[in-house]
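Re-run with default settings, no changes from the original entry. Doing this only to confirm the output is reproducible before filing.
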Amino acid sequence: MREHVKILGILNIVMGGLVGVGGLVVLLAAGGIASLVAMAAQDSGDADTARWAAPVVGLIGTGIGVFLMALAVPSILGGWGLLKYKSWSRILMIIVSGFSLLHFPLGTALGIYGLWVLVNEQTRQLLESGGAYPPPAFPMQQPAGFPAGRPPQGF
């Protein structure tokens, strides 16, 4: 499960980065479109339309861009937490994976994979231990009659 946790962390950082860049693009595009709307409205001689249309377009674009960037933050933060084996990252990433299911098609695949990795008992133990390797399930037993730490003679 250790490798799955690392892969999931990297994939969430990449997905969060892409969503964040998309939010930045929407912010820039909304500013440009708002300027074009204002210029077109003024060129047509309709100053009243220019007064309200450009800010509305800019406000809607800003809202969408900020919303996308806000969605990216938990994914990036949770991915970093998974890479560092932080115990809090498991719950955060279960929530993010649940929301990712709505982001068809890549987010859906990432959400299913994330839930599969994160609800696993081994993953819970791995993250609660901070990434330490768990003790073996069946520790080696020293054969009776031999001192601990020394192999039997003649082998």
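The mean pLDDT is 86. The chain has five helices and no strands.
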